[in-house]
Amino acid sequence: MKAIALTEFGDAEVMSLQELPDPLLGPDQVLVEVRAAGVNPVDYKIRAGHLRGLMPHHTPLIPGWDVSGVVRAVGIGVVDWKPGDEVLAYARKDHVQFGTYAELVSLPDRMVARKPSTVDFVTAAALPLAGLTALQALKVTGTGPGDVVLVHAAAGGVGHLQVQIARELGASRVLGTASPRNHEFVRSLGAEPVAYGDALVDAVAEAVGGDGLVDVVVDNVGGLAFDQSLRLVRERQRMTSIVDGPRALENGVVNTWARPNAEQTQWLVDLVAAGKLHVEVQQTFPLAEAVKAHKLLEGGHVRGKIVLTV
Ligand SMILES: NC(=O)c1ccc[n+]([C@@H]2O[C@H](COP(=O)([O-])OP(=O)(O)OC[C@H]3O[C@@H](n4cnc5c(N)ncnc54)[C@H](OP(=O)(O)O)[C@@H]3O)[C@@H](O)[C@H]2O)c1
Fold first, then answer.
1. Taking the domain 130-255, which CATH number applies?
2. How far is the CA of 223 from the centre of ligand 1 (A)?
C-alpha cells in the first residue's frame, strides 16, 4: 500500500509517500480502506518527536489518528462489522506506528463507529479526535443546563465543535475566544466571540456581568490563556486544559487527554447527520501532500479542520 511515513523525527519534510507492506489484521481488528484522514496538531507533534517520552514509537512511522473509510476485511473475532461497512474512528493505539495517512489501516473494532450515509467521508474524518476531545473535556467539567462556558480557540479544530456541543449539553451561554477575523464564524456556531490577548479577562467579565466569572472553562491554548482562565473560573474543578497537563495538575485544574470511544464517536456523528453539529473543513489535500497540510496546520490559525483525501 501507499502511505505517508517517516523514519526520522523532524520538520514536515521528514514525511514522504512510500510503498509499505499492507497492515496485518488482528483477531479483534477491522481492516479499513482509508477514504480520508483528519490532520491534528498531535500528528505534527509526533512527527517532531515530542511524544516519544509518552508512548512507544516505531519506524517507519505512519502518522494519523483520525480516519474514515470502508471496511475491507474483519478479524476472526469480529462480529459487529463486515466488508463494505462505512466507518470512522479516533484510532489512537498504544504504540505509535501504523497510523491513518495510508491507503489501508487496521484498527481495534472497539474504536469504530458507523458512518451515516448522509455524512461524507471528509467530514467524518475531521470529526473523531477533535469531537471526542471537545466532548470529553466538557464532560469532566460537568457542563450542563444553565452553565456559562468559556471555550478558548473557538475557531479551531477542537473549539469550533466544543462551542456547539456545549450548547447541545444545555449551556445557557458560550463565550469563545478567537481573532477578530473569526468572530462572525464563532457567532454562527452559537457562541459570543471575544478577542484573545491581554484584555481578555476584562472583556469576559464585562460580557458576563455580575461577579465577572464563568462556570466552566476549557483551555485549548495554554500559556496566557491558562493564567487568565484561573482568574475567570468560579471553581477550579470546573476548568480543564487539553494542552498543559502538568500545570493543570499543579493548579487544581482537571487535565483532559482524549480517549478513543466508539459510543461517543457514534453520538457525535449522529449529531452531524441530524444537522445539529457542523464540522468546518478549511481545506483538503491529497494524501501525497501531507507535508503541505502539516505546514498549514502548524501555522496555528486554521479555521476548523484540515483533511487528507486518499
Ligand atoms: N489533550 C488532548 O487530548 C488534545 C486533543 C486535541 C488537541 N489537543 C491540543 O489542543 C490544542 C488545540 O487543538 P486544535 O486541534 O483545536 O488546534 P488548531 O485547530 O490548530 O487550532 C487553531 C485555532 O487556534 C486559534 N488560536 C491560535 N492562537 C490562539 C490564542 N492565543 N487564543 C485563542 N485562540 C487561538 C486560531 O484562531 P485564530 O486564527 O482566530 O487566532 C485557530 O482557529 C493543540 O495544542 C492540540 O495538540 C489536545
1. 3.40.50.720
2. 12
- Residue 29 CA to ligand 1 center (angstroms) comes to 31
User: What CATH architecture is 2-127+279-309?
Assistant: Alpha-Beta Complex (3.90)
Mean pLDDT by 10 residues, the chain (310 residues): 98 98 98 99 98 97 98 98 98 98 98 98 99 98 98 98 98 98 98 98 97 98 98 98 96 97 98 98 98 98 98
The per-residue pLDDT for 247 is 96
User: CB-side exposure of 225: number of CA atoms within 13 Å?
Assistant: 23
pLDDT of residue 40: 98
With a 6 Å cutoff on the Cβ, whether 240 touches ligand 1 is no
Cβ 108 under 6 angstroms from ligand 1 = no
Q: State the virtual CA torsion across 199, 205, 206, 209 in degrees, nearest 10.
A: 180
Distance, CA 301 to ligand 1 centroid (Å)? 8
Ligand 1 within 6 A of CB of 40: yes
* Ligand 1 atom closest to 297 (CA): 20
User: What are the b/e assignments for 208-242, b being 16+ CB within 10 Å?
Assistant: beeeebbbbbbbbbbeebbebbbebbeeeebbbbb
CATH 3.40.50.720 in the chain is located at 130-255
Testing ligand 1's pocket by substitution, the residue of 50, 186, 242 carrying the most ligand atoms inside 8 A of its CB is 242
User: For residue 56, what pLDDT is reported?
Assistant: 98
Residue linked to cell 465577572: 212
Residue 288 confidence (pLDDT): 98
**What pLDDT score was predicted for residue 53?**
96
Tell me, in angstroms, the distance from the centre of ligand 1 to residue 219's CA: 9
Name the residue with cell 479544530: 157
pTM of the model: 0.98
* pLDDT of res. 246: 94
